[in-house]
Amino acid sequence: MKLYYSPGACSLSPHIALHEAGLAFTPVLASTKSHKLQDGTDYYTINPLGYVPLLELDDGTRLREGPAIVQYIADLAPHKNLAPANGTLARYRLQEWLTFIGTELHKGFAPLFRPTTPEDYKGIARQQLQSRLQWVDSQLDGKEWLMGEHFSVADGYLFTVCNWSKSVGVDLSTFQHLQAYLARVGARPAVQTALKAEGLLK
Fold it and tell me: Are 25 and 18 in contact (CB under 8 A)?
């Protein structure tokens, strides 16, 4: 398999999942600025949407969208408990978290990265994110991971998105449970490996 990624982008989530699952894969750097691979290949010829992540299977099949990719990865290594079994209520709870992270948090950060976003709107976006993250903080009270006792692919996704907070001025310092949780995720060997591979950790 190949994972097309850009350092620190949302592709860090499947990068973490692949290491957690213990699966063999080849990471392929795809710049989100130049939209070119290191060998000069136009990334749009691989993903017409131009963004990461993209997972290319050994038979050439390509899978887009982080939440779909991480569930696929989890299902390749069911013994790792990265996702509950398909058809169970717990699996829908995982999808509930992945959807929330993708639509309420991931997309919430997007305006803060755009240089064309008006400053007054950025303030509104930060307030909305603070409100959503305060709710996440309350959900982590008394829990080690989002799904309870098992680390899941939703944890890798939340960690990835929350990592953007420092660079765009979203303050997490008042969220005690979230802060402790992010430290737990960041200390996992697979997470450390993914961070180092992307040059995000020395």
Answer: yes
3-state class (DSSP) for residue 63: strand
| 202 residues of the chain, pLDDT tens digit each | 999 999 999 999 999 999 999 999 999 999 888 999 999 999 999 999 999 999 999 999 999 999 999 999 999 999 999 999 999 999 999 999 999 999 999 999 999 999 999 999 999 999 999 999 999 999 999 999 999 999 999 999 999 999 999 999 999 999 999 999 999 999 999 999 999 999 998 7
Max CA-CA distance within the chain? 49
Q: Which DSSP category does 103 fall into?
A: I
User: What is the Cα–Cα distance from 158 to 178, expressed in whole angstroms?
Assistant: 10
